[in-house]
Fold:
Amino acid sequence: MYIELSSSRPFTLDFTLCCGQTFRWDKQGDWWRGVVGEEAFEIRQYGKTLEFEGVNASFIESYFRLDDDLPNIFLHIDKDKNIRAAINEFKGLRILRQEPWECLISYICATYKNISAISQMLANLSRKFGEETHLDSHSFYTFPKPEKLAKAGLQELQECGLGYRAKYVSETARLVCKKAFDFERLKKTTYEKAREELLDLPGVGPKVADCVLLFSLEKLESFPVDVWIRRVILKYYTKHFSNEFIKRNSARESLSRTDYEKLSYFGRQYFGSHAGYAQEYLYHHERTHR
DNA sequence: CAAGTGCCTTTATC
DNA sequence: AGATAAAGGCACT
Structure:
């Protein structure tokens, strides 16, 4: 099946799947292969054409957020020359509409790990606790259900390379099962309320919560702050902060909770209702220019 | 090539 | 409030 993109609907598959927002996609030749929910599918792009197998067009439009009016979002977040440079270079990068449960566990696992290590952990978890499916001759594993991870032993989780994260994953899985954690409700409520509920989960701090909100709960104003984004702000946006704040954060490795909130709040105020897009562009830009 | 550094941080403790 | 330490292990230099 095919989707034809018009020039008013920019999209670049490679940027979108390579920018570190998702961890379970694999590229062989032109084809990207992955699983979303129960659906294994493959997709490739040539020019303005998307070709895919395994799911229908509306699934693709939803997962890749082709419904976001990207040119209009650019107009809103285009506040200065830093962000403009990032937009010009990576135009077509889109935030994905990920599955909340998988996104939550992915970012709990992502703390203090690099992207390739995160991919490995999640592949291990899926192979061990997920269901195998096939598309053509390729085999895939779905992401394990909450019940499955809730029942898993700590030892088994650690064998997947989770380390100290194993206990957070286990406890969060249990809480999600027990309280029947309603991700759909979080999608409908405000950024602030949804964030508070996420912060109650073990292994979820402000950074993880903001990522889950942005990538899976429809909160495009969310502005996650990691080491890279902090670096960007300390480099290009110093004038929006006090001298003490800049000094403190330049000298120190760790980021205090209150300073996290200041940085994240700045992002939301400065870039507005689609600050999350600005964050992704700045993040990817900074990473690729180091 | 070995050893050091860094990693899309959170939590516990003082 | 804020500082500090600890917590896998792997990739990269």
Residues 223 and 276 of chain A are 5 Å apart (CA to CA). Residues 20-21, 107-108, 110-115, 117-118, 164-165, 168, 202-208, 211, 224-229, 254-255, 283, 287 of chain A lie near DNA strand B (CB under 10 Å from a C1'). Residues 115-129 of chain A form the longest helix (15 residues).
